[in-house]
Automatic annotation (TrEMBL):
Substrate binds at residues 146, 168, 179, 259, 378, 383. Signal peptide: none annotated. This is Arginine biosynthesis bifunctional protein ArgJ. Heterotetramer of two alpha and two beta chains. Belongs to the ArgJ family. The keyword Amino-acid biosynthesis applies. GO terms for molecular function: L-glutamate N-acetyltransferase activity, acting on acetyl-L-ornithine as donor. It comes from Sphaerisporangium aureirubrum. It comes from the Bacteria.
Amino acid sequence: MSVTAPLGFRAAGVPAGLKSGGARDLALVVNDGPSRAAAGVFTRNRVKAAPVLWSEQVLTGGRVKAVVLNSGGANACTGPIGFQDTHATAEKVAAVLGDSAGEVAVCSTGLIGERLPIDALLAGIDDVASQLTRDGGLAAADAIRTTDTVTKIAFRRGSGYMVGGMAKGAGMLAPAMATMLSVITTDADVSAAELDRVLRRAVSVTFDRLDTDGCMSTNDTVLLLASGAAAVSPDAAEFEKRVTEVCADLARQLLVDAEGATKAIAIEVVGAAHEDDAVTVGRAVARSSLLKCAIHGEDPNWGRVLSAVGTTDAVFEPGRVNVAINGIWVCRAGAAGDDRAKVDLRPRDVTITIDLSAGTRSATVHTTDLTADYVHENSAYST
């Protein structure tokens, strides 16, 4: 139950020879309508991959017929030829489907700085298009994996409609999403403008609150497509809730599959003067390598939390900050609180609660521990 859970969508995933070993590396998702309404959110990195630049242009029209996605190469920092390859990919999909390249979004993921084997990619499009089915969502989700150890899919049922999705990502998980690609679909009848509003709000509290390693990708893309095949105009609040739930589900799957991670850490910031302050504090704590190492070693070193909080411009008084780790208030009023030996850090899930005592706003940022396996996996990624 993935992108093809809603009516009106077909998908497929095939090996096109972009990755060694014969694994699937090319996916195609097609919206059979009757609607083609779509919205997208992309990386805020100033260095954007060619497929991001292309798809940003496509989404200005608010319509998407198909999304073609490849792993095995990011097509980022590849110069004009990289953009030409993206254009050629969209043109090939359009020719196979008998449609317009201006309504074909393109997504790529993999190593930055190397040109894709474009001949293999274009040949693979014929193959993947020939295998499009209503049952092809899982194969498509498998084809977009890079260092992911598992496929990532989710769905939710609304009142007479469905929302489904797939995602990939296991490293470079930082704000403005992650090194992630995600396609979310619905058979509800929703305008492009409403899809854009809902998607941006959903992303802001899910993918944008995921920060495992502080590294922002060049290729981040989240697309929301509506086929209208269920002929239902959904309640706006319910629809936003269902889309947000799918995004949250996928974000959680990205978190627990993060490269080398052994702990999933939720940083809850409460008592903030503003929500932005809560996010800023949560982000600073999530990026503390010292704290992430401590959590990996199951050491409840709350001083590392406070020192990270102090690097921000959030409104707070140091002498009023409280910190709990897995429910034990180890810091009260900016000083030692309950005995840190009471903290049990053996479970995979760890919750750090930071009370700024400065207001009523809150936010949660998610991160992971820092492990030797993470360093090992990223020490020779390109070689």
